[in-house]
Amino acid sequence: MDTQIHGAGHEPLSIEAGALTATMKIKRKVVIDRYREQVEAMYRD
Predict the structure, then answer these.
(1) What is the pTM of this model?
(2) Is the dihedral of CA 1, 26, 15, 40 positive or negative?
């Protein structure tokens, strides 16, 4: 089974990178912190 989810041009989201749990759920705080600029850009006017 592949343990990576590829994001927007950055390192893949993976268990090893700390962005996914063992059951492949996204650790939201880790991902939001890592991609803060992109998340904020989505909500700008």
Answers:
(1) 0.62
(2) positive
- Please state, in angstroms and rounded to a whole number, the distance separating the CA atoms of residues 15 and 37: 22
Q: What does residue 39 show for φ and ψ, rounded to 5 degrees?
A: -65, -45
**Helical (H) or strand (E) element with 14:** strand 13-14
Structure tokens at 24: 């492949």
Cα separation of 12 and 5, whole Å? Answer: 6
Alpha carbons 10 and 31: distance in angstroms, whole number: 11
pLDDT of residue 37: 87
